[in-house]
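call fold(seq) -> tokens
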Amino acid sequence: MRTLTVSGHIDPNTAFRVRPFPNPTDPFISLEVEGTDITISVLASTGSADTLRKLAAAATEAATTLDTLTTDDDPQAADHG
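ret:
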């Protein structure tokens, strides 16, 4: 990852899109996270597939954690939002 910090809020209407750019000399993909007012594009070149898999695993872990934070069994969940 290079130097850039971006913050955005994912909501139920957030869209995700993968756009391939099969340039013969420098192929890459764009992974877009698209909301109402902002689109964040992450560019990944060849050799980055394992890093994208780690991103997917982290997103899955975050979703599972979010599920546990918002269960009815957690009395503090109602206080956070």
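The first strand starts at residue 15 and ends at 21.
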